[in-house]
Automatic annotation (TrEMBL):
Gene3D superfamilies: Histone deacetylase domain (3.40.800.20). This is Acetoin utilization deacetylase AcuC. InterPro entries: HDAC_classIV, HDACs, His_deacetylse_dom, His_deacetylse_dom_sf, Ureohydrolase_dom_sf. One of its GO terms (biological process) is epigenetic regulation of gene expression. Belongs to the histone deacetylase family. CDD domains: HDAC_classIV. It comes from Pontibacter akesuensis. Residues 18-289 form the Histone deacetylase domain. The lineage of its organism: Bacteria, Pseudomonadati, Bacteroidota, Cytophagia, Cytophagales. Keywords: Hydrolase. The keyword S-adenosyl-L-methionine does not apply.
Length: 300
């Protein structure tokens, strides 16, 4: 059964001026339920992740200051959110959503989180709407507690997964692959194991050609036992922060490429949603919904 992390806290613990793009966290499960792609049995509400698992990835000093609302004004500005107890609690629940999705993927082949993809969080700081790094926390959980020996991170958000790259820069068991707009946030890039920077306005044909060139070769070379897929839909031409030129169908073909390859290689995959900031919320929801539709089609 497809298991999907979702909680009301995803949508209801954000500052008022961030509610529009983040409305997807409420509208997406509603759409999937309405159209019959999922039932309520597919959804699970994660509990907050225990601090011991956060500390497997993040510095103790940073976690202490974050959880006690003691970040400096400069640190708070870099996250993009005003710091609050509710916001930290939201993040901790999201972290466990991806951990649990990864565990469900070990059992069923795929697990998903309607939130997550917080790839701008470093070991010791947050940036870009990310306080903690769910993909890194979940990957370390599998490496430390579940006997997984090699992880591949496939980050296809429009922005480089700089925090994930930094966290795993000296971890040979995790290979980080980021395909992103080269001239976009973050302006200082970290070094992923493989970075594929794209020109502004990159269209479906060019994007899919590059993905289909790199990903099969990576699977052969890396030989991962598990895949984390950051499936941000800010690659759309309609995205306010993206700068690429992809259509909703092109984004769907991107997801199909990744998920079909995981299925063909019998690789468990955990999917986090990542970014999406189109002016019309319907574009965001439809593009994200395609990822869940494909998961049901390919696995169940």
């Amino acid at each position: 059964m497809l298991k999907i992390a979702w909680s009301e806290i995803f949508a209801h613990s954000l500052p008022e001026n961030h509610r529009f793009p983040m409305a997807k966290y409420e509208l997406l499960p509603e759409q999937l339920l309405y159209e019959g792609t999922i039932t309520s049995d597919n959804l699970f509400a994660p509990e907050p992740l225990p601090a011991q698992f956060i500390l497997d990835t993040h510095d103790a000093d940073y976690w202490h200051r974050l959880s006690h609302l003691q970040l400096s004004a400069s640190e708070v500005r870099k996250t993009g959110f005003p710091l609050s107890e509710q916001l930290v609690q939201r993040e901790v629940v999201i972290m466990n959503g991806t951990v649990q999705a990864a565990l469900f993927a070990l059992e069923y082949g795929i697990g998903m989180n309607i939130a997550g993809g917080t790839h701008h969080a470093f070991t010791n700081r947050g940036e870009g709407f990310c306080l903690l790094n769910d993909i890194a926390i979940a990957a370390n959980h599998l490496l430390r507690y579940k006997g997984i020996g090699k992880v591949l991170v496939v980050d296809l958000d429009v922005h480089q997964g700089n925090g994930t790259a930094q966290i795993f820069e000296n971890e040979p068991r995790v290979f980080t692959f980021s395909m992103h707009c080269g001239h976009n946030y973050p302006f200082h890039k970290e070094n992923s194991d493989l970075d594929v920077p794209l020109a502004e306005g990159t269209d479906d044909k060019t994007y899919l050609h590059l993905l289909r060139h790199h990903l099969p070769r990576l699977l052969d070379a890396v030989q991962p036992e598990f895949v984390f897929f950051q499936s941000g839909v800010d690659v759309l031409a309609t995205d306010k922060l993206g700068k690429l030129g992809m259509s909703i169908d092109g984004c769907k073909q991107r997801d199909r490429t990744v998920l079909e390859l995981c299925r063909q290689h019998n690789l468990p995959v955990a999917v986090s949603m990542g970014g999406g900031y189109s002016r019309q919320i319907a574009h965001i929801v439809e593009a994200h919904a395609n990822t869940f539709r494909l998961a049901q089609q390919l696995w169940f």
